[in-house]
Design brief:
The chain is built from 13 helices and no strands. The protein has 326 residues and is an all-alpha fold. It has two domains: 267 residues, no CATH class; 37 residues, no CATH class. The protein starts with a helix and ends with a helix.
């Protein structure tokens, strides 16, 4: 077993444990760019690894009740067969360098979508926090059932699952990026936690279907998969333990930059152009994020939000304490 492969798997597992995302979107380009693994073999092995890790997070969301089960059913109706078919589509494109290059380009596009998905997820969390603060300010409960009720649109949801399944079957990326972005557009009223939980639960049968197809028709390599799993499984555990102690937001920002760089590299973008794009993102991104925070009534900087929350709690305690003493 390649020890460096296990180390890479551990690092990716830690990121998954910390943020709940980044598995397929990070492991596949690592295998292609740093280990020289052919794209189709990297996709095959990564999907089998994801099929082992995904159910853990899905179980957590099912226990918490942050899953729209009807939506999961319609998504799976489209995604499970199309994920299996995605592998057949990749094989039908040909063999050798031709199909490997096509998979490489598709993977690059999927990674850029994954980076966009991270930004959208972060923005959803921002909107959710702003809504809770607003509800608390006027004395309303932030978890009213009416806010959680979403009318499922079967046909559109099946189409989203179908397209997402094809992309996942071909690239191993998309269950947490392409699908989640589409769900946001289709169900803008869906709460952030419900969105993440629904997406994660539907991803389990989707990834299992794609993994099975890759085992049968792909370029699966047992030694590669075992090497990644040896590192990834303890990495997920360590990341989950650290998730309450380290700033997940910072990890997600770094992950978005890495995914963007990997996607551009796989698409053949030159180093100068890639550095220019990343530089522009890192300069403009924080300014745009501060503007987004202010537009939703939050302080421009996150640490100011934490401070104001503590001060608000202290103020409420001070107002209640005379009554309790009486």
């Amino acid at each position: 077993m390649d020890i460096l492969l296990a180390v890479a798997g551990f690092a990716v597992g830690v990121v998954v444990g910390l943020t709940g995302m980044g598995g397929g979107a990070l492991m596949t380009p690592v295998l292609v760019l740093f280990f020289g693994i052919p794209p189709l073999a990297a996709v095959s092995s990564d999907l089998v690894v994801s099929a082992v890790m995904k159910p853990v997070g899905a179980g957590v969301h099912l226990r918490r009740g942050t899953v729209n089960r009807a939506m999961v059913g319609w998504l799976c109706l489209g995604s499970v067969p199309s994920a299996f078919a995605g592998v057949l589509v990749a094989r039908a494109l040909g063999r050798g360098e031709n199909v490997q290059q096509i998979i490489k380009v598709a993977l690059g596009i999927a990674l850029l979508l994954a980076a966009a998905g991270l930004v959208v997820k972060a923005y959803l969390g921002l909107v959710e926090r702003a809504r809770r603060r607003s509800s608390e300010a006027i004395g309303k409960r932030s978890d009213e059932p009416a806010l959680r009720a979403v009318r499922v649109r079967p046909l559109a949801t099946v189409v989203i699952g179908f397209v997402g399944g094809i992309v996942v079957g071909m690239t191993s990326v998309g269950s947490g990026s392409l699908i989640i972005i589409s769900l946001i557009a289709l169900y803008p009223a869906l709460k952030a936690n419900d969105l993440v939980g629904t997406d994660l639960v539907q991803a389990v049968p989707l990834v299992v279907s794609a993994a099975l197809a890759h085992l049968l028709f792909g370029d699966f390599r047992l030694d590669l998969t075992v090497g990644v799993l040896v590192g990834a499984l303890p990495g997920v555990f360590v990341g989950a333990q650290l998730s309450s102690r380290l700033p997940g937001g910072l990890i997600r920002k770094a992950l978005a930059v890495v995914l963007t760089a990997s996607g551009l590299k796989l698409l053949g973008v030159g180093n100068v152009a890639m550095i220019s794009v990343l530089g522009a993102i890192m300069l403009a991104g924080p300014l745009l994020w501060m503007w987004a925070r202010r537009s939703h009534g939050l302080p421009a900087l996150a640490f100011l939000e934490s401070r104001s929350t503590v001060e608000g709690d202290s103020s409420r305690t001070a107002q209640v304490s005379p009554i309790s003493r009486a």
